[in-house]
Amino acid sequence: MNSTTLSVFVWGIYVILSGFMLLVFPRATLSLFGHEAPKDHWVRVVGILALSLGYFYIVAAQNELESLYWASIFARFAGFLGFAALVVFKKAKPKIILFGIIDVLGALWTLFTLIFK
To answer: 0.70 exceeded by the pTM?
Structure first.
């Protein structure tokens, strides 16, 4: 497995773990970021979506789909911007930026492995 494929595979595992945590332990997961316990089902829906997305990343890595690698880089940078916007517009607490930082770090890892291969 080359370094780019590894970065996307690891990212897929991270996304699956995040989805699992939101699906099974939403209260504990959200409390880590200073959010209240969910009062409805939407956080679990996001968990299910994350599980699906993580699976796509793993399949992309297993099949070395470089076009998806590039798309994921842009999507993860956009994820950071989305989290930042939620904080700026006071729709989320600043701790949520941690997810965005993880997005950027993962995107940079994949980007650097693509550029310097």
So the answer is: yes
